[in-house]
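Could someone model NAI with this protein?
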Amino acid sequence: MKRLKISVIGAGNVGGSLAQRLAERELGDIVLIDIPQTGGMPAGKALDLQEAGPVEGYDARITGSTDYAATEGSALVVITAGMARKPGMSRDELLDINAKIVKGVAKEVARYSPQAIVVVVSNPLDAMCYIAWKASGFEPRRVLGMAGALDGARMKTFIAEACNVSVKDVQALVLGGHGDTMVPLMSCATVAGVPIKYLLPEDKIQAIVQRTRDGGAEIVKLLGNGSAYYAPSASVADMAEGIIKDQKRVIPCAVYLNGEYGFKDVYTGVPVKLGAAGVEQIMEIPLSSQEKEEFQRSAESVRGLIESLKKLGHLS
Ligand code: NAI
Ligand code: 2OP
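Reply:
Sure, complex below.
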């Protein structure tokens, strides 16, 4: 069977770590792309990963380049290009600089891989999905963003720790934008199907909600330079596997809403079914009035960023 091509744009921390995970899962041949100013860096990382193949036992052709021609005919493209936040910086402060980068990248993706499915990682995530969608001209089901998988993984980690149980038995769901207003849905959190409200007191539950919202900032502060990449790359790898293997995985992702949950013309995080066609179904779940209010606030904050993109001239 012919191996599919997966291109990762931005060969930095997330991009490099993601290329390793994709190779280890043998999801296809991998192309790492970065800007010409990085010289041989993408090719160097690619060769290093290729040489790990005989040790790890994976078969994948991994190449790196600063020329988008190498990405031609990709089935899947992951955009990790852009600046990461520094301590004290919010994701939203990356808006202007990363909008320019993501717009340019999305145009190259559309030029060389017109049939690709695009997974956006660059921040601020939901607004960058919107700009990638517009700049690519692709239908919305082929442009989605990674956030809920990561935020949910953080929430599961904190629940497992608080309950002293295996992470394998924890289920959790985070809706909304990938920012301070995200909505960790404690009503959907369970340990092996047992609702979390029967296992933890309210103050512990609220502490988990807040730590989930602050999850990215907690890592930024600890690292001192740059942001998280191991859990982000693992989250993208799960989405990539769901798409490449047509697994029909249900994973929360940032997707274009056209009436679902009462929102129109905005990208934000909701549970979706992922398969070979990209976003194959948006799942609408009932929410309490408080959850609805929080979700509304989160979607409105993404809408505010999209308005800023318009004012800055990125969406004209
Ligand atoms: P990084 O700084 O390690 O890597 C970014 C790479 O992008 C650099 O190698 C840079 O040269 C490259 N780049 C810049 N402009 C480019 C262009 N026009 N074309 C191709 N490559 C370009 O940053 P890191 O840690 O890999 O993060 C990347 C982005 O992902 C950031 O915006 C970060 O905030 C975001 N992120 C989002 C997450 C999410 O949950 N959605 C999780 C983690 C990171
Ligand atoms: C995170 O949540 C930086 O958005 C990234 O770690």
